[in-house]
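JOB MANIFEST
job_type = single_chain_structure
chain_count = 1
residues = 446
[input]
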Amino acid sequence: MGAVGTLRSSPTTLSPGPAPARWRLWLVLLTVGWHGIFMVSPPWLQLFGFSGPRMSYPLFIDSMAVLAAAETHHLGGDAFQHMALDPYHRKHSYSSWWFVLGDWGLTRADNPWFGALFVLAFAVAAATRLRVRAAGEFWWLLGTTCSAPVLLATTRANNDLVVFVLLAPLPWCLLHSSRLVRLIPPFLIAVATGLKYYPLVAALMLLAEPGLRDRRFRLGVLALLLVMVGLSVGDDLRHIAETQPTVEGYLGFGACAGLDVLGVPAAWQGRTGLLAGLALGLGAVFTRGWAGWLRRMAGNEQWLQFILGAALLAGCFWTGMSWAYRWVFALWLAPFLWRPVDPAAMPVAVRRWWRVARTAYWPALWGGCIYFLIYNPLQAAGHAPPWRVNLAAWTVVQAATWLFCGALTVFVGAFVWDGLRGLVGAGPPVDAVPVDRRDSPHLGST
């Protein structure tokens, strides 16, 4: 129980060395340096296989696709079909809101600074949300920020980085003392949803509001905004199925990944959303005893940040196939998985699920990368492992990801259940439950 990062009742003690502010500085510098190496790296670094199966692609290729779509639309073409202006002739798979970039005069020639802007905004948003409290946590967070999926997102300047930037302030805003600031989240969620659809799941964060009247008002504002978003992008939704890229192997993220390899009938591979509903139901039914702890955590920024990341990751995992970029939201999970605030108050049942998520985290995040670090040099030397070894490694990584996202879904289910009960006035008043305000310097009156 005394090991760094384990649950213990005593306050966190910083290891000898730099103060927390300096740990954060080192985290930022090392992360920026690591990502910078791959952005200017010679081809052999890509062939070494860190970021996947011998991948090599132009820098900021995903922001290029967005600009190509905007330029295509501005010139009168159909960006939802294979685009001649895109280097890989991809289809635009997001909403038409991105087309405004063409109206602003942006073209593919602007991609170097445009993609760099994506990455810079993401770096600033991540740096402001991560707090390093101990040496062990520094290495834990560094392993997350320097992981292959996050590297993939930054070197390609994927627009998941834009979603990250838009949603990162949500916990801070929800706990702010100003009513005006607490009104910002519905607008951030609506904009992110209009750009890329899946951020709609972040709407459940509004259930965290302790003030019942304010909470209902914000949910009403969000509902109105989402109706407006739906009217704006409704026609774009017709293109979702036909424009989604096919993702296979370790670079994919989703419950459907590899199910055909495991012999699961194709008819069932698109029904993994049912598993999400089942997991949410289990989270609601079997975590009702968490109510007191959930109410104590209602004012904790670290917890709300964890739920935001868990909802986005688990939601994307169960409902479709995505590129591994989605793991950028793990940056919001990492602090809670390292050591939650006030672990001594965590009920045994909560602690069990926390340990499940914590144990599965690294195999799910790093498993594919480690395998390719071994596989690619062997393949280059003419000694590629046989298929059964590949399948075994894939199965281990996928099983860890299923276990991890299953645990996240249970936490989200408990959060949603408790929030809905509070929304209808069931359960004890929030003011009657002690609230842990640590790590929430902006928390004020409701």
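[summary]
Residues 1-18, 428-446 have pLDDT under 50 and may be disordered.
The longest helix spans residues 387-423.
exit_status = 0
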